[in-house]
Automatic annotation (TrEMBL):
Domain named Glyoxalase-like: residues: 11-119
Protein name: VOC family protein
InterPro entries, sorted: Glyas_Bleomycin-R_OHBP_Dase, Glyoxalase_6
A Pfam family this chain is assigned to: Glyoxalase_6
Length: 123
């Protein structure tokens, strides 16, 4: 199927673009792209594939999640082993959320309070 467009980037608003870029760089294994002047916009180097970017938003606050009827975007990151993945993201600075509604995934918050999930790969 041919789409209208191709996914290039997922952009997260943040008061600290470089700090959040370094956190997700560690999680997904993509290096922070070199930026000589612009610290209002930081990208991970996806090597030509879809990637993540971080845009300065000084007034951005952590979302209230989960909240009934307040759906929002979050990242699902696939891992082979949920226990090992959990240990690694906690070491990187994530926090495990109290809301854990499933068994094949786990919910975490990044250092700014944005939710993301580790999802067990189908293998």
């Amino acid at each position: 199927m041919t789409g209208i467009a191709r996914l290039q980037l997922t952009v997260l608003d943040t008061p600290e673009p470089m700090a959040l870029a370094r956190f997700y760089s560690r999680l997904v294994g993509l290096p922070v792209a070199e930026s000589e002047t612009d610290h209002d916009w930081v990208e991970l180097d996806g090597g030509g594939g879809p990637s993540l970017a971080f845009q300065l938003a000084p007034a951005k606050t952590a979302p209230a999640w989960p909240q009934e009827g307040a759906l929002q975007a979050h990242l699902d990151l696939e891992v082979d082993d949920l226990d090992a993945g959990e240990a690694a993201v906690l070491e990187a600075g994530a926090t495990k959320h109290e809301h854990q509604p499933g068994e094949s995934f786990r919910v975490f918050l990044d250092p700014e309070g944005n939710p993301f999930c580790l999802v067990r790969s189908a293998q």
